[in-house]
Amino acid sequence: MKVVVLGCGFGGVEVARTLRKQAKELEIIMIDRRTRFGYLPSYPELLSGKVTPEDISGGLNKFATKIGAEFIHAEVVNIDFRNKEVKIKDKSKSKAEDKVRAIPYDFLVLSLGTEQTFFGIPGAEKRSYSVNTMGAARGTKNALDKLDYSKELSILVIGAGLTGVEVAGELVDYFAATGAIASIYLVEMMPRILPAFPHESVANYVAKFLSARGVKIMTETAVQEVIAHEILFEDGRKLTYDIIIWTAGVKPNSLLEKLDVPKLKGWLKVDPYLRVEGMDDVFAVGDTAYFERAGVRSGQNVEEAEKQGKVAAANVQSTIKGRKLWEYKPKNTMQNPRAFISLGDDKAVAYSSKITFKVFAYRIKKFVERRYMKRFR
Ligand SMILES: Cc1cc2nc3c(=O)[nH]c(=O)nc-3n(C[C@H](O)[C@H](O)[C@H](O)COP(=O)(O)OP(=O)(O)OC[C@H]3O[C@@H](n4cnc5c(N)ncnc54)[C@H](O)[C@@H]3O)c2cc1C
How far apart are CA 266 and CA 288, in angstroms? Predict the structure, then answer.
């Protein structure tokens, strides 16, 4: 039996790892357009230089070899569900890059993550930097390093969700180390920062912490257009900028548009066992999947991607063996999210509906990162 895993982020890596633990005989093929896994929650720290790209990335080929799987460095361009084939374009230099070839599968698991969205705002994509991929985060860091520190700088972070808040904190650390004078703006369309987190008290704590470190928070401020050196807001205000870092919003992977399978708002609809609705041999996990149970939707975060990866792998095995499938039960949900939120200055706040703590939160977050990355060493 051949299981093909598309996307080797948190979800895909967990699928492959769990499958191998459960079944020595399975052929496992992992496909990704990158050669290295990236620990996304620590990307904001690339800006301040607290971590290097090497610290928070790991070779996928090495990982696959270690667990007895095959890794293919390729772009997935389409899936033929009827003939059970994935269409890929190899990215490895030794192979013909333009040729599309087919990889057959018995079982398929999609874990392709998200893409950044700029909501069609004119000039936003062209003129903004990002931290959503390793390449983008490195580009942002390079741009920061090239700024003219002799003048007062204006740096804008657009979107005050988890990533935006963390980026703002890291920027404070970055500029403190350079000695440059920079105004850091954290811009949010909603009435408060961290709008996806239901507890206002945590958002207030984070806002107070960042404000005390000099971050200028602008809520109820929607971007209308980005032009050279200036950002225009819907209410008529404008600001000059040296760098804009876009952290607002994600959308489904564009590959999903080509797939004729059940979707909701562009995400792949999965059944209680994480199979793409109506299919017995195709599973979806992580950010790609839309999982809802009794009105509760699974969150788009590392915890859910990993848990779903484990359950999908177990269900592939159960299907092969003719056993009862495991129902997925989300924990870190859209309605009840939990997270470690770094604030810069080696501080963080751990947040959930039951408990919030600050002491040791940053150390625990770093411990989790280091422990996770060991699997690639
Ligand atoms: C900057 C940032 C910070 C974050 N911070 C946190 C945090 O602190 N805590 C938290 O819980 N979550 C955080 N998240 C969210 C978390 O990283 C995601 O929920 C998680 O990575 C989802 O795992 P996944 O496997 O679904 O997707 P990913 O980990 O994104 O993996 C998707 C993989 O698919 C590959 N891929 C995509 N398309 C193709 C294609 N066509 N062909 C081949 N390969 C393809 C990509 O290269 C990638 O390796 C953060 C996200 C970002 C962007």
Answer: 9
Fold for domain 2-115+250-321? FAD/NAD(P)-binding domain (3.50.50)
**Ligand 1, residues at Cβ distance < 6 Å:** 7-12, 31-34, 40-41, 43, 75-76, 111-113, 131-132, 162-163, 253, 255, 286-288, 300-303, 305, 339
| Residue spans in the chain of domains classed CATH 3.50.50.60 | 2-115+250-321, 120-248
| Distance (Å) from CA 9 to ligand 1 centroid | 6
What six digits make up the tokens of 355? 């408990």
Give the span between the Cα atoms of 37 and 270, in whole angstroms: 25
**Ligand 1 pocket check: which of 40, 255, 267, 368 to mutate, most ligand atoms within 8 Å of Cβ?**
40
In terms of C-beta density within 10 A (0-12 exposed, 13-18 middle, 19 or more buried), how is residue 118 classed? buried
Ligand 1 centre and the CA of 210: distance in Å? 26
Distance 142 CA to ligand 1 centre (A): 22
Rg (CA), the chain: 21
CATH of domain 120-248: 3.50.50.60
pTM, two decimals, is 0.96
Distance 169 CA to ligand 1 centre (A): 21
Dihedral sign (CA 207, 166, 305, 246) = positive
Measured by CA distance, the residue closest to atom 8 of ligand 1 is 41
Q: How far apart are CA 199 and CA 214, in angstroms?
A: 23
Separation CA 22–CA 45 (nearest Å): 35
User: pLDDT tens track of the chain, all 377 residues?
Assistant: 999 999 999 999 999 999 999 999 999 999 999 999 999 999 999 999 999 999 999 999 999 999 999 999 999 999 999 999 999 999 976 665 678 999 999 999 999 999 999 999 999 999 999 999 999 999 999 999 999 999 999 999 999 999 999 999 999 999 999 989 999 999 999 999 999 999 899 999 999 999 999 999 999 999 999 999 999 999 999 999 999 999 999 999 999 999 999 999 999 999 999 999 999 999 999 999 999 999 999 999 999 999 999 999 999 999 999 999 999 999 999 999 999 999 999 999 998 877 788 889 999 999 999 999 999 99
**Residues β-bridged to residue 186:** 157, 217
